[in-house]
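Regression test attached.
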Amino acid sequence: MKIQVVESVLKANDAVAHENRRRLDRAGVRCINIMSAPGSGKTTLLEKTIPALLPDIRCAVLVGDLQTTRDAERIGKLDIPVVQINTGRGCHLDATQVTSGIAALDLRGIGFLFIENVGNMVCPAGFDLGEHARAALLSVPEGDDKVAKYPTLFQPADIILLTKVDLIGVLEYCMDRVREDLSHVNTRAPLIEFSSKTGQGMEQWLSWLRSQKR
Amino acid sequence: MKIQVVESVLKANDAVAHENRRRLDRAGVRCINIMSAPGSGKTTLLEKTIPALLPDIRCAVLVGDLQTTRDAERIGKLDIPVVQINTGRGCHLDATQVTSGIAALDLRGIGFLFIENVGNMVCPAGFDLGEHARAALLSVPEGDDKVAKYPTLFQPADIILLTKVDLIGVLEYCMDRVREDLSHVNTRAPLIEFSSKTGQGMEQWLSWLRSQKR
């Protein structure tokens, strides 16, 4: 009984997600859903990425958070369209919230719509939002066991960014363990070792993004 | 309609949690539910805490994870009773899972039962498991904005541990911001600045634990 409820919610979500994707396709917008645990560096990644894509590609952002508009304020400083979606107690964004977010945006001239999902390694992965690709982040300080422990986030990812790699010298971290775990979970997605401090991995990430643009 | 389903699930959970607590009370076991984002240091905290409480207080642990038994294996090395609860795609532990976990434990002589919840700053906070107290962890590398962004985790916490404070020198981190945010969310719970590397905060944490024992 309970499972039936969940399934019907997911089916309804998928239908709305499909409509979101169609709407974005018509507008020529590519949508990237960015997912990770809290504090893995999603907002910082966007703060670095969006100026680097300008002036040839203009971006917009939907930011999901339980409360506060802090992330949207950070990204708003880049002078691009940003919509904050506050989920209250909700642990993930769903497609209907994204529909509302898109409706609040002027999509003309936008090349990429980034969705910064709620910081959570579990629930967001279950909800198609209408994106074209999924980026999963994991950060070095979270420890080298996260791919094995949260495979549902990494399995459907189209690209995986290991963030804060500048801390590898400070912390004990076994890259081989991450690669070994990924070999069981997802061998399709590129793995980028990334640092917003040193710039490591930035070119690889930007190249991947440009390859997603039609 | 959807909200009614959620409410009935939560009510059923609360009834089971109440029974768990009664059972633990009869056995003289105090139960601490430990919650945080992935990689904040829950397992490491237990690895340090449990030997420090011995020999006068014996502990047992229930470990919640989507998959793998890695955390249970780490804690099992301490030669104490440990039960791993794998939730599959489940984003939190619920009271019924804890009932099963308790049933698999011999509670005789146990002073503390620690529950290491699934790494998630959102969903676990909504589910009473039958614990006597809640410990919420946030780690320095996650950034100083997490209390404001995930208030539902910190509001019901009985104690809050800021972990990995040895990294404050390496990262930009504003303790005043954390204290200011906590002043709006929870002024009841002690805040302990903790480092499993340097031992900072360990005595304060152990004192708090001992104060919870009846």
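Expected vs. actual: identical. Chain A has one domain: 2-212.
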